[in-house]
Write a structure and sequence with these properties.
The complex is a heterodimer of chains A (301) and B (615).
Chain A lengths: L1 H32 L9 H11 L3 E2 L2 H20 L14 H20 L4 H32 L4 H8 L8 H4 L1 H15 L10 H4 L9 H26 L6 H21 L5 H8 L2 H16 L4
Helix pairs in contact in A: 1-3, 1-10, 2-10, 3-4, 3-10, 4-10, 5-8, 5-12, 5-13, 6-10, 8-10, 8-13, 10-11
Chain B lengths: L6 H21 L1 H21 L7 E4 L2 E4 L2 H24 L6 H20 L3 H18 L6 H29 L4 H8 L3 H19 L7 H8 L5 H8 L1 H13 L2 H4 L4 E2 L7 E2 H23 L3 H22 L2 H32 L15 H14 L6 H16 L2 H26 L15 H19 L2 H13 L6 E3 L2 E3 L4 E2 L1 H21 L4 E2 L26 H4 L8 H23 L4 H17 L4
Antiparallel strand pairs in B: 1-2, 3-4, 5-6, 6-7
Helix pairs in contact in B: 1-2, 1-4, 2-3, 2-4, 3-4, 3-10, 3-15, 3-19, 4-5, 5-6, 6-8, 6-9, 8-11, 9-10, 9-14, 10-15, 11-14, 13-14, 13-18, 14-15, 14-17, 14-18, 15-16, 15-17, 15-19, 15-20, 16-18, 16-19, 17-18, 17-19
The chains are: A mainly alpha (301), B mainly alpha (615).
Amino acid sequence: MITGILTGFGILLFAFVWQTSLDGINRKIVGRFQKRIGPKWYQQFRDIFKALSKTGVTHGWVFDFGVMMALGGIMATVMFLPVVGYSAFPGMDNFFIFVYLLAVGMLGMAMSSVGSGNPLAGIGVMRALTQMVGYEVPFMIVILGIIFGHNTSSLSELAAIQQASGIMTWNLVKMPIGTVVAYISLLGMLGKKPFETFIAPAEIASGPMVEYGGKQLGMLMIMHEFATFIEVTLFVTLFLGGATTLFGFIAKYFVVYILASLISNALARFKIDQVIKFYYKVPITLAIVQALMVVFLGWGV
Amino acid sequence: MDFILSVPAIVVGLFAAAVLAYLLTKANKILGALITVLGSGAALAAMLMLKGDINSVQSLGALGFKLTDYGWFFSVLMLLIFFSVSFFNLYWMKKIIHPAAYNFLYLVALAGTVGAFTAKDFIGLFIFWETIVWASMFIIPFGKSRNASVVYYAFSAFGSLSMLFGILYLYSKTGSFDIQYVLEQASMNTTYALVAFITIGIAGLVKIGVFPFHLWLPKAHGNAPDTFSPILSGGLVKAGGFAAFLAVIVMPSYKVFASNALFLGRELAMPVPNYILVFLGAVSIVVGTLMAIKSEDFKKLIAYSSVANGGYIIIGIAIADSLSVGGAFMHMFAHALASAAAFLSAAAVVHRTGTTKMSELGGLIHRMPLTYLVYLIAIISMAGIPPMSGFISKWMLFQSMIGKGMVFTAAAAFFGSIGSFLYVFRPLSAVFLGQLSPKHESVKEAPFLMQVPMIGLSLLTLLFGVFPNIVLRFISDILKTAGLDGLTLNGLVISGTNGQLNPSLVSLIFGIGFFIALIIFIIHPKSRKVDLMDTYTASEFIYTPELLHYSYAFYAPFERLYENAPSTEKWYAALIKKIEEAGQLVSYTFFNNKPRIIVFWMVCAVIALLWGGSL
């Protein structure tokens, strides 16, 4: 138990350092894309620690409590993740824990931001939740296929099964349609364009984030890094066979994340009803096709 | 075993308490309400003490009582909900038109519930079932609408008559009313089994409010007195789960129909009648979720969420393997606690502000923080998020659905599950968070005796979310007596078909995560407290809190996408119109005061009489 928790802390630390650095690198890459030089790779650390050290404002106890619940829930979720063969609680890294424990964090953030009393935050949360209905359902249908096919919902076991014989046993190869759907869902989870509607800085002043400053903003930035880490790691573990070496993990993670970021920079933003319409036309159909192929034809098992 | 502590004694005692409550309320309203608290509390204590007497048979005159393990489970759950809610009666005596009748019917409904769950014979089950229906039918119009009661009764009558038909049909075939015996006999003959499955199943579906019988829930729950909505949603609706359990598992119809299973082979095999139930459950999840998202009324929203949750329960029972039925039982348990708590917090809000319209409220967290926390815990459970008990049941149901590879059902369930985040957040945001309206500036926290049951239910939700195996062990025993495999429980761990869950560990890690966040929060500079109106408004000057509160038509962009979807309500409205027209036709043809028509029918009657037997 104690070693498990310590392993969890280790994963937490790795997640923070790696994802925050990568976020900085990403900002640099995006800068180069836009013919800017871009900030230093550690700029994101600077931003977070600067925000944490400032005196901010608070709009009442739920504004603070929600932030703690958000960061706490997300950190708990990270501690369950299996990374490069390290798993804090082997066998307990059930897929559903990630979906629902992540939701604690999201609920905390939604609560805190609406608790600020700013209607723009309310609109942002409305959009975020609506978008969640969009991307989560196709994603979970694809996962249903994976769990049914491999008969386990433990992430580390799913990774181990895919590592059996190289790239050919990856779900990317065995369930290509599902992978595409999951990647589109991942864009929605990460809030990358065209699914960036709930942040939309020019429309609703960053939506849920509108009232934050000081340490609350800093904590939410940390939470955002962790949430990104969870989502990308889930994709890497479920479709790219996880990783047995640290380098392998970093490489896969880098490709998945930077690709999402590049797509984001090439596209424009959907309206929220367009988001739902899109998810409930293309990805959900593909997801069901993929799941039916797995369940009835036994393809990709 | 003596008569003092037995099921018939509880039922008789509750009826006696009902009469006492009626008489005392005439003298003193608060005293009468106190009887409902004491009566339901005593009955709950007695039922808990009867745990050792499971499977005992007793009779009271012609009525036989048999305390089955699932009957005990349901009875304790109901008694717990009635007991918790009864504290609110103390504060509602001034608001209800006929307090004496209310207290009387409250306890009669409770006696009917306990009787129905412990009846040995079908005839007893039917009598007590009708007692519940009639008692609640008279309570509902004490609230906002008389029409709600009519709708409730129309649906209930359909279910009850269906059940009565089944009971009498089976009696004519088997010559007995004994539930166990009749169901055993029925399971040996496919036709009998099918009749029992359909008739009792329909009674269950109507009661639990599964599509297409879901319309009475929002009507009745939304308009019933605020103290009775939690009873309906947390308690009485679950009687539908009981009937469905009788029809599917106790009979056991899933074995009878096994030969005509869809997709023979693999894990997918499921009999067609069961699949129909699963389908109806899936439709109710989607319909309930979409309608709940659309609701503007706090109570109606929770009522529609009950429709969606009823769908999960029916799916769980209809899949009929140990994990799914166990999940359905756990879901009934978790949802009863959560929805009762949510309705109670709604009642507390009504008590202080006098409205359930979400757009008129807002910012109540600054005046009623405890009610807010109770609602928060309830919705975390309803949305199936750890560390609350709703997560456990959803996890079990998902395990079962995925294990069976039910793509479409699981898609509906996933939609309902994520959709529930939307609708449960709505009251949180519109009622408790956001700007506090100046007219609610002086609102106070709910009074102490209202806090007691709310806190109690929340703690139970949390307790059984962290240590669900306390309940699951008992559920496992129920499954074993019903002929299914028990659940695989190992210490704190629950094992499913494709994974394991340790809820205590999840809760512990969440606690650790929260603790770290708390430390990060504390060690950094203190924030400056600002007023709620001191927010970013893009340099516009807005001084009216109501204008800065985003609450009306919260999910408008999403609602627009399905505003033209086919509506069951309209279908029922058309049906009512047609029935009315048919009635008018009949009354015009036979019952009018035009002499020529009366003469015409008299002539017809005379001719018929003259013809006599040869006609």
